[in-house]
Amino acid sequence: MRVLIALPILIPMTASAITLLTMRTGRLQRAVSIGASAATLAASVALLVRIEAEGVTAVGVGGWAPDVGIALVADLFACLLLVVSHIAIFSVLVYSVGHPRTRDSGTVFHPLYLAMTAGVSLAFLTGDLFNLFVAFEILLTASYALLTLGGRREQIRPAMTYIVISLVASLLFITAIGLIYAATGTVNLAKLAVELEQLPGDVRTALGLLLLVVFGTKAAVFPLFFWLPDSYPTAPSPVSAVFAGLLTKVGVYAIIRSQTLLFPRDEPWWLLSIVAGTTMFIGVLGAVAQQDMKRILSFHIVSQIGYMIMGVALFSVAGVAAAIFYLMHHIPVKTSLFLLEGIVEQTAGSSRLDRVSGIARSRPVVAALFMIVAMSLAGIPPLSGFIGKFALLQASVEDDQWIIVVVALVVSILTLFSMTKIWNAVFWGQPSTGLAPLASNVDSHRSMLAATAGLVMLTLAIAAGAGPLYDLSERAATDLLIRGPYLDAIFSL
Amino acid sequence: MSLILAITIGALYAIGTYALFDRFLSRIIIGLALLGHGSVLMLLFAGGTPNEPPFADSSISPEEFADPLPQALALTAIVITFGVLVFLLAVSYRSWTLTHDDEVEDDLEDARLASDDRVSHSVERELSALDEDLEER
Hints:
The complex is a heterodimer.
Chain A: H1 2-21, H2 26-54, E1 57-60, E2 71-74, H3 76-98, H4 100-103, H5 109-125, H6 129-147, H7 153-184, H8 189-196, H9 201-219, H10 228-231, H11 237-261, H12 270-289, H13 293-314, H14 317-348, H15 359-362, H16 364-378, H17 384-398, H18 402-427, H19 442-464, H20 466-482, H21 484-491
Antiparallel strand pairs in A: 1-2
Chain B: H1 2-20, H2 25-45, H3 68-99, H4 108-114, H5 118-136
Helix pairs in contact in B: 1-2, 2-3
């Protein structure tokens, strides 16, 4: 059990080193990489099953007590996200083997990708604020290198923006940790939860807001999102897919964890509600104005983050449960949308709406898959997005938050509108001629399509198994809000 | 002692933030380095009053130790910010070799959208279609 908690971090970290050593042998490196990713996924599933049965479990790394060493904590919330994330990570890895820009961009892709995977796992499982900073740095540093992979001219400038913004947020994070340590004398999350309650209210509020700004920048909420739609579209499609699906979600995870554990509230927080509403609204307006499939999808990442924050802002079991369910639905949906965009780009040679058309005729399977996930993103029943949004709206109505309900509904319609825009321009009509397809290798298309189809099936499975999954989210949310099980797990070490 | 340290931290944050708003990439990177120094000193400062070195001498009682944890955290933070800054320098060098320009440009996509009335857009589309025709021939 103790080893099991560390495995989702250890496996990809070790494999990252091995793939670095086997750089000269393309086949072996790919095999190690995919094997390690599958093993990580298996370990996360095993961990979820154990935690579901036994409740929150903590481990002191190296046998140290939690006040001197680092604690790893697995609760239902972390494990659910861990499993969904690793499914997305595994699918994108299979896809990237077929994608020319990651297949041919030298052999550094796999070590970087696995290091990022380890960072994501660590961020979910750590029970220590400074270790959370380290986890963010592992995944961010890997993401800087992945984003600049190939070093093309159009990649470098947006990558600079991304690195500078992330670094500023990280430095703010160090500052916040310094201030929190000065005020409480600990960086362990469970001890912080107890110590922060002893502080004067205004100090506590200031620290809470500082952490919110840090994680808000990483999660790309309004008004801290400007870096995202600029930098994500320039990366190779598998890279932007995994960024879109995961990196901002780790920020959302950190917001949920820190706000529920360290700064608990009993009633909805108006500030987070406003942030949620403006994030979804401004994000979707940005998407409507764009003329490129990848850029439209990037603005939708921002918009969708708003829905998750909307659930957290309620600070009720129903709200947080809906946010967790929404996160689980969003990761595969967003990732597969970017993967499909990659296939369109390979088939048609561009992702600009005015240059591509008629994909529905030339690649009907791709069009059908896009239809499913696009409708899910917009929230059309009976797909997973509908269930997530319905749960969010129901939770908001219970707390009489009518304004945010109206905003969420309007944003849904605008989302549907911009998805229809992509559909009309890219998939409908006569197949475009003139632009040459970028990939001629049929085999590579097969692995890309198989990986994408697998993820789309997962979103359908989430919709089909919504009942039990929502029950799990509700249990995870209850654990988060009553805080007792999490604190007990660390203090009983 | 700690007043001097506090003023130093404040000055580092202030100068770092000021340099961050510059239009030249090299100055932005220097600003980030200064901000990094400021935040690492802040982390160190969080450990309270300076005292005897911890664990070095068994005759010193633990009450007289300086707090070792912020020192360990600061060390980690230094390594991380150093690594990322070096990577940022490499990227900005790459940017300089590609464009021979150290200045941060205005957001091109933003400028294009702002000036995007339908007439100019359709003209642009016709031009690009013409270009493609020429290339085919």
